[in-house]
Amino acid sequence: MTAHYDARETREPAVREAELFSRLPDVLRGAMAAPAYAERLKGIDPAAVTSRAALAGLPVLRKSELPALHKASAPFGSFVPAAPGSFARLFTSPGPIFEPEGRQADPWRGARALFAAGFRPNDIVLNTFSYHLTPGGFIFDASARALGCAVIPAGPGNTEQQFELIEAYRPVGYSGTPDFLKILLDAAAGSGRDVSSIKRALVSGAAFPPSLQAEIKARSIDAYQAFGTADLGLIAFETEAREGMVVNEDLIMEIVKPGTGDPVAPGDVGEIVVTSLDPNHPWIRLALGDLTAALPGPSKCGRTNMRIKGWMGRADQTTKVKGMFVRPEQVAEIGKRHAALGRLRLVVVRKGEADAMTLRAETAAASDALREEIAGTLRAVTKLGGNVELVSPGALPNDGKVIADER
Question: Could you give the CA distance from residue 328 to residue 9 in angstroms, rounded to a whole number?
């Protein structure tokens, strides 16, 4: 499996970067035709946003904000310039969050993820993602058909009927959650049904731990992972190199410090922020609430786009201490006020039947005076008292965790 979906996947990174940022100003102009983006980006000159540094100066839109925004201005929170009737399908996800599907071919950008997983034109694919109101089933359906595959729109559940379809159509590919693939294989083994035609899979929507990966492989199925959302479709995908995930084309991914829009240092864990270049439904710095870290260099499979480690947890670590919310952005604010600090972690515990918190801060310039200054800032920002522990640079784990609630 050494071929690539198209020549764009193997471009020089600088060529890709230049192409993305040459398109971004027009996408911003289109986005600002929508009232909500016009308000959020007021005073921004789209022509000046032609680099990652310039993009990092734009406000972040948090996915966690979307339910309230969509409710206040249905259906899309006034973030979509095109009329709802101009789209092909209209969905809802828990929240609720409302998502439109474009009329273009492969609107969710998933064909190249399927190709990287070994799917090819004329393959038959059993698609077990739900087709009911949410976009999951249609994301993988449209992507497989864009690749030239035939799709069985099976949806999840009803294993007996699934077996009838598999034995009749003999699909070579599976798309769905890894959990349901195991359920299907276990049920087939228990009832003597033949599902041996399935040789490859693209799985998403749930954890795929090494133990389950080994079990699926032992059953002669080559399974690959993809990372996506109902808002953006397929964002990154695993390749034959099995070294993290390659970011999809036509997306600009940033990794930022949780609670901020500030890019992390190379290799550090942070929150995924995505800007899409779809003129019909642009997303400008959408913060997904998911953590990852970038991997250095191109993939051994030959694809040259940014690589990430995959999903590494949630960035929204908001917690309550003594009845008051403490948020990652407050911890980030403390760091901004003290230039000598590196990584920070606020640890919350129970002591003597009461909440207690300690801010652990990396610094090469530890002193009692600095500790006292930080303690004062901690109280000023959070309205709560807490201890401050200064540690040496590199002492805190690189896992993106800003607040550790250990109660």
Answer: 35
